[in-house]
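Appendix B. One record, verbatim.
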Amino acid sequence: MKNFYKIIVFVSFGVLLGSCKKNFLDLQPKDQLSIQTTFTTYETIKLYAWQFYEIFPGYDASELNRDVDSDLGQLSLLNQESPWIWQRVIVPASSNDYTKPFENIRAINLLLDNIDKASINESEKKHWRSVGYFFKAYNYANLINKYGDITWVENAIGDEDENTLYGVRTPRTEVAQKVLDMLKYAESNIKPAGDGANTIDVHVVRALISRFGLVEGTWRKYHKLGGEAAYLQASAEASAKLITNFPTIISNYWEVFNSSSLAGKPGILLYKAYEANQITHTASTFPKSSSGRWDLTRKAIDMYLMKDGQTRWTSPLFQGDSTPFREFRDRDIRLYFTTPPPYKVNAPGSVRLFSFTNNPTDKEFFSVLENLSPVDTSKRLPIRNWNGFVVRKIPHFQDANDGQPYNVTYTGYQLMKFSSRLNEGISSADINDAPIFRMEEVMLNYAEATHELGSFNQTICNATINKLRARGKVNALTISAIPEDPKRDPSVDPVLWEIRRERAIELMGEGYRFNDLRRWKKMGYTSERKLGMFVFVKTGTVQNLACGEVPPNTVPTLGGRTAGSSGYVAYEGVPPANFPDHYYLYPIPSNQIVLTNGVVKQNPGW
C-alpha cells in the first residue's frame, strides 16, 4: 500500500457513515456500513478511519494561496490584491473554514464514541483512540488558529442536536489545552509504527505537537494571552525527539517538492501521494499555463542570503540588481529551485527546440541547474510550459511576453517551486507528491521554540538552521556574530530574526507565512507596497531586448509605464496602513450566528 489516498472506495463508505442521519442508521441497509458493523474489528475501524486523512490539503491551490495574504507572495493575476492586506474582508454567510472541520470532528467522534464496543484488545483500543485524538486535535488546532474561542464538541451528535454543535463558544485556553492533552495521549498510546508506511504514527503525532505547540505558544505570547511556556516546551520536546530519530534530510531541495514518490525519502514523516488517473493536482500546471498563478515579491527575494551568509546589502558578493543575472549570482541555491533564474534562448514560435544566443551570459545558469539537479525530470533550463514549449526568456512578464502567453509573471519572480519536467505534457493532472510533515519544518519549530524559551544555543543552531543553510550552500550561522541586516525589524532580536528568515526561505510559497505573521502579530509588514524585479524600460521589441529590459508602456514600475521609467515593477498600489487588530481572527460566518439565535457571538470588531 503506497499510501492512504489509494483507499478511495473505502473513504467513500466512511464518509457516508460519518454524515448519515440517525434514522438512516437505524435501517441498517445491507449495502452500506453501519455503526453496528463498522466499529467491531480492527480492520473495519481502520477502513472507517481512512476518511480522516482527507483533511490534509497537499498541493491544494487554496492552501498555497495563503502566502498571497502575506508580504512575500502575490497572485500573478491582474487586480487580485489580498483582501486581508487591503482590508476588504467581509463577514461570509457561510465558510468551509468553519463548517468542514466540524463535519470532520463529528465523524471522528463517532469513532471515539464506539471504540470500547469493538472486539479488539486494550492496546488496540488505545491506538485507535490515539488516531482519533490526533485528527480531532488537527481540526481543532485549525479552528482556534482562525477563530479563537470555538465550540467544543465532545461526542458525536445527530441533526436533532444541532444546537449542541452550534452552542456557546468554548474559551480558546480550554480548547487549546484539550488539543495538547489529546496529542500527549496519542504520543504515549499510538502504535509506534502506525498502520503501515505513510500513516499516523508516533513521529507524525510529535510533528503535530511540534507545529501546534509553536503556533499556540507564540500566539499566546505576542497576543498577550499568557500561558505560552507549556506549549513552547511541548513543541521543543517533541521536536528534539524527532531530530534525534531523523537526523538526515533530502540532500536536494527540489526533490522535496518534485518527486514522483516521497516514499522512504529522508526526513519525510507524512506525505500526500498523487497518482495518474487516481488523484492529481494542478500546482505544477498553473504556473506553466496562460493564467499563471503565484509570484514572489521583491522582499521575498531579498530575504535569500548570499553564499557567505550575509544579506545582499552587506555582502561583497552582491553585484547589484541592475540586471537579473547579477542579483541571482552567489545566492542561496534554494532561490533557483523556487523561482527560475534568468536566461535567454532562441526558440522560433511555439516549439520544443531552442538554440543559445551569442551572449554567453544568457546561458549562465543552465550549467548551474544541471549541476545542482542532475536528473532530467528535475529543475532545468530553459523553462517550458506544461506542453513542453520553450519559454524564450526569463523573466517572462505578462505584459511583455512576445506572443508566449504562458509561464507568465507580474513581479518577475514566478513561483515555480512545485513545477519541474516531471509533469511535462500533463495539464491539470500533476503527480508530484506533497510533503505534509517534514523534518525541515520540525527543525525550524525547534529553533524558534527554544529561542522563545531562552535555551537556543549554537548546538541547536547547528542541528537546525545550519543544516538547512548547508543544503542551500550558505555559510553557517554563528549566533555570537550575527551579520548586520539593515532591513531587520528593530523590535525583533537579531538571532530570532535569522531564525524567522530561515523559516521564510525554507517554507517559501508553501502557505505558512500568512499564519506566521498572524501569530507573531506582525501583519503590519504587509502595509509595505509589493514590488517586483528592477527593470529597464527601453525602446525595442521584447524579443530583441535583454533579460530585465521591457518596452515602453508594458510593465508598470514605480515611475509608471512610459519610456525612461526604469525601476522596480509595481503592479499593486500602496495598501492601507495600520492593520486592524480584529483582522487577526477570522469572522464567524453569519449563518452560524443565525442558526443559534445569537448564542454564538461574532468575533469583536467584525
